[in-house]
Amino acid sequence: MLILCHQPQLEFFSLPADEESKDIKITSSTETHLHGLQKYTNYSLQVLAHTSGGEGVRSQPIHCQTDQDIPEAPTSVKALVMSADSILVSWLPPERPNGIITQYTVYYKEHGKSDSEDTQQKLLPSQLSFEASGLKRRDAYVFWVTASTTVGEGELSELVHLKLSNKGSYNRSS
């Protein structure tokens, strides 16, 4: 939320990077709250007075940034059998990270076993893949990934299911 204070009869402009995306807010108050702003986004704001004599001169732009939030889910999660007991999981960053990604967490567990605990591996933000090894042959596994910012852990990715066979080939299920 951004608050700007000035003299009455003001127009507030939120000007994202492209000039075509301009919002005008007219108010007679000395302050206003801007709503519906995107997370972790730079904005330029200008004010001008408007009287019966016409519009005044726009102020110099005020540059500000909205706060970080938790990220959306990583996208394009894929799994590939690498050996008889390992699976490589890869993903792409979230479409809207809503901040600076501080880490990814890969979760996995044996599919269909309610007593099976989630295994998790925390990774650097530059890593977009992880090889889970030491898996049991012929067992099915489910994988998912999250991204985190300083605000916290974001949404879960889509689930990817994979089953190892004796020979290291795989069967994909949904």
The CATH architecture category of the largest domain equals Sandwich
Question: What is the fourth-level CATH superfamily of the largest domain?
Answer: Immunoglobulins
CATH class of the largest domain: Mainly Beta
Which whole number gives the mean pLDDT? 84
Unreliable segments of 5+ consecutive residues? 1-15, 168-174
Q: CATH topology of the largest domain, anyone?
A: Immunoglobulin-like
Share in β-strands: over 45%
Largest sheet: 6 strands, antiparallel
Number of domains: 2
Terminal CA distance reads 41 Å
| Number of H- or I-type helical stretches | 0
Helix-strand category:
mainly beta
**How many individual β-strands?**
16
What is the 3D form? rod-shaped
Helix proportion: under 10%
Q: Summarize the helix and strand pattern as letters.
A: EEEEEEEEEEEEEEEE
Radius of gyration: 25 Å
Strand and helix map with partners:
Blueprint (H helix, E strand, L loop, with lengths): L2 E3 L4 E6 L7 E5 L3 E3 L8 E10 L2 E2 L6 E4 L9 E9 L2 E7 L10 E8 L8 E5 L5 E4 L7 E10 L2 E2 L6 E5 L5 E4 L1
Antiparallel strand pairs: 1-4, 2-3, 2-5, 5-6, 5-7, 8-9, 9-12, 10-11, 10-13, 13-14, 13-15, 15-16
Summarize it:
The protein is an all-beta fold and 174 residues long. Helix content is 0%, strand content 50%. Strands 10, 11, 13, 14, 15 and 16 form a six-stranded antiparallel β-sheet that branches. Strands 2, 3, 5, 6 and 7 form a five-stranded antiparallel β-sheet that branches.
